[in-house]
Amino acid sequence: MIDQACAPVISLHGLTKVYETPVGPFSALRGIDLEIGAGEFVAVVGKSGSGKSTLINMFTGIDHPTDGEIVVDGVRVREMNEGQMAEWRGRTMGIVFQFFQLLPALTLIENVMLPMDLVRSYRASERRDRAKHLLEQVGLIDDADKFPAAVSGGQQQRAAIARALANDPLIIVADEPTGNLDPAAAEAIFGLFESSARAGKTILMVTHDDELAARVPRTVILADGLIVDEIRRGPSEYPERRRERQADRRS
């Protein structure tokens, strides 16, 4: 349970998603209740088809629920139109997609700059330098001017992570972020997520890697569209950053 002195950054209540299929309705999510606080690092695990990707698609606004309430950083997600949703998502969330979704006609550095261009989050003169800094953090500065097709899948994944951080988002959502990385690169990316959580960002990571999930302070386990268990291994978040975040929200 999130401390009620601090409102959760992500709040889901009665979240339901039903898909119509040729053989009848399929319930991908069946009344999910979940609250995640500022600065929490949370892993979501479960077998294929358990509802993990559907869950993150709901609160990022990529897909729409059949029923239920979604509040993210005080915003009721279901009340926004598509244009408002795109602007809000670009400023609030950094999303690492499972299959990268880099634009093939843009270089890696241009892909990282794109979110900044879309929501004008940094001055035009600052965007390239910020993109270089992020590519350096993920070990890709020497490949900045290459196109996605010219680098490996693991390098594309690291570029996608740099792109997700471009607008300094409050929330980072990562769908299997280390699945295509070698152990050293995966360790570096995990460390980047840990340091981001210490800086007050909320991290939600979908993973099939049980060893990786075991290193995250909080793990939510899904099965058949339901949360069936939750494991906490330590402090739910970094208290000093949580207090600062609440002070910002009140000011």
What do you see in this structure?
This protein is of the alpha/beta class and 251 residues long. It has one domain: P-loop containing nucleotide triphosphate hydrolases (Rossmann fold, 3-Layer(aba) Sandwich), CATH 3.40.50.300. The protein is 35% helix and 26% strand. The chain is built from eight helices and ten strands. The chain has helices at 52-59, 82-92, 108-119, 124-137, 153-164, 183-198, 210-213, 239-250; strands at 10-21, 24-36, 41-45, 67-72, 75-76, 93-96, 171-175, 202-206, 218-223, 226-232. The strands form two sheets. A six-stranded mixed β-sheet has the order 6-7-8-3-9-10, with helices on both faces. A four-stranded antiparallel β-sheet has the order 2-1-4-5, with helices on one face. A hairpin with a 2-residue loop joins β9 and β10 (226-232). α3 packs across α4 (124-137) and α4 (124-137) packs across α5. The longest helix is centred in the last third of the chain and has 16 residues, at 183-198. Mean pLDDT is 88; it is low at 1-5 and 236-243.
